[in-house]
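I am hoping you can look over what I have pasted underneath with an eye to the fold:
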Amino acid sequence: MKKENIKNYQSLASALVDLFGKSVAIMNTDRIQGGDINKAYGLALNTGDKVFMKANAKDCLSYFTGEAQGLEAIKATKSIQTAEILCTGTDDGEDVGYSFLLQRFIKSEEADEKFWKDFACKLAEMHKADCSCFLTEKNAKFGFYSDNFIGLTPQINTPKSSWIDFFRENRLEVQFKKAQKNFSESELAKITKFLDNLDKFLPEADKASLLHGDLWRGNVMCGKNQTPILIDPAVYVGNREADIAMTELFGGFPEIFYSTYKECYPLMPEYENRRDLYNLYHLLNHLNLFGQSYLEPVLSIVSEYL
């Protein structure tokens, strides 16, 4: 798969003119709460359109280009709807420069049982889809054609032929290295032993699947007519169990989602015994981003598998 040609602009004004015409003007700007990383706004235009804008420091443009590539990859599977990307860009602004991502504004609805069943089936279809086009190296089965981000943290997607090697080297080892200062010498010894024996706990994937990569409840929206819409991905090709495990980490999804998904695409036996192992990646990332409150859960999971 070629990298999608998502247009990038040198100012917000030039982006809006190109997208909506020379007479476009912003009538109202609403700050939208939520998220720890970017500022978010709803822009009401004189054309009657409404645009969702994320903004961050000017040197953070790669966050947004990576997100756009991820949404385009999910879209390419023709399985589940994603937030529509309009463009990315940078702007010098009046006081300080910033980077931005523009999307069509999504008016969310309250999700019902139909939504969760439909979402489960569509996610299963995404996981079933051929994903070889997202890899550029011969014989590689896992990874992505570019690196991206998990939150503020660079996510390494160097292709590998083995899921175990990919998860060890590109996910856990990277995060443990960043978090090294939090551990004692005895704890570091346990971590080394744990990583060396990862193949005893983690099987190779039954199939390589395109993953959303950051699939918690806040990154699934209910659009018009109960349409499931994915936002804010950290995509890569991996074992679909990692996506399902992430859904259970922060509050979980309704039970009807899990039962429907398993009907559409049964999980490998003993998935429950591996769930914490997959979520260790996200807990380590939270430890590195947000601090020591995540240290105990990390050490608990390491001990669980020794």
